[in-house]
Amino acid sequence: MSIVAMILISLGLFFFFVGTVGILRLPDFYTRLHAAGKCDSMAAVLVVVGVALHYFAQDFSFGALLVSLKILLIAVFV
Fold first, then answer.
1. Domain ranges of the chain
2. How far apart are CA 75 and CA 53, in angstroms?
């Protein structure tokens, strides 16, 4: 499960990078805003879900489950 978490976090960082490149390369304000909004939203969800899985993979206790569920709720509201 830790490998899946690292893949999700890496994909999230990739989407952050793509959004940054889109901001730098696209011609006008609205296309830059579109690139930033789409990529950053997807990246934030992937990173938060990856962090929740990584935290739960480190410790299989009830407390870790509750913390992971709280992190996933943050992902839902992002």
1. 2-77
2. 12
